[in-house]
Design goal:
binds fe (ii) ion; mainly alpha; 239 residues; globular; 69% helix
């Protein structure tokens, strides 16, 4: 029987560097940010800053899932297509809602759209923690979970940070179209006073190269045949 990763101890999930613990930490951070936004009691500027933090985290997190995790599940699980199709649909709906919020800053329905996006994000987290991520725990040993975690983190660190409804949800299309947009997003994220622009821009360009490289490695890894747990040969790829 599948056991939600929410109720398992870190050691049962492969330790702090495993993909399961990395996912759980991000989900907890998202939940805390959404709670703070919903609690109110802050200035409009603070509310906007919170919203931007949520948006950046949501999109980089989801892009890395679609690039690194879901292709692995489609290869290893008999119902992988159905499982991943459901969370991809959730991601698309979140993407569309957040894009709508961005395009309509003065629309009176803005708060309602944001609340709908929060509800969908929470639904997505539940699906992942209760159904999809436990499958990775059942399928892979701790070492492999840490390698998948490192790959996911590498892609997430340089993934797009804004909604792009036209970008496909699956590799290789998402990586091919998402990487150039990631550079654009991160340049737009640069805020005056947040540090030397030249240094940040250089990091963005290096990071985009990292996304392309990591995505290519994951696509290749996802196409490799899967063997019994714990008997994978050491490989230069990440999962
Ligand atoms: Fe997630
Ligand atoms: Fe997700």
């Amino acid at each position: 029987m599948t056991v939600s990763i929410t109720v398992q101890e870190p050691a049962q999930l492969g330790g702090s560097a495993s993909i399961l613990m990395r996912q759980r930490r991000d989900h907890a951070r998202l939940d805390a940010l959404m709670n703070r936004w919903q609690a109110g009691g802050v200035t409009d500027d603070e509310l906007d800053a919170l919203w931007q933090d949520i948006v950046q985290l949501v999109f980089s997190h989801a892009f890395a899932e679609e690039t690194v995790l879901w292709p692995v599940l489609r290869r290893t699980e008999a119902d992988g297509e159905e499982l991943t199709g459901r969370v991809e649909a959730e991601h698309q709906a979140i993407n569309d809602l957040i894009a709508q919020v961005g395009k309509s800053p003065d629309d009176p329905r803005r708060t309602e759209w944001i609340q709908q996006a929060f509800a969908l994000i929470r639904e997505d987290i539940r699906d992942e923690e209760d159904e999809l991520l436990p499958r990775l725990r059942e399928r892979f040993g701790d070492r492999r979970l840490r390698r998948i975690g490192a790959a996911w983190e590498a892609v997430r660190a340089t993934a797009p940070t804004r909604p792009h409804p036209g970008v496909p949800r699956r590799p290789p299309g998402n990586a091919l179209r998402g990487v150039p947009l990631s550079v654009f997003d991160r340049l737009r994220d640069l805020a005056p006073g947040s540090g030397p622009a030249a240094r940040r821009a250089a990091l963005v360009v290096c990071g985009a190269a990292g996304v392309a490289g990591a995505a290519a490695l994951m696509i290749r890894a996802a196409r490799r045949p899967e063997h019994a747990r714990g008997r994978h040969p050491r490989r230069p790829t990440c999962a």
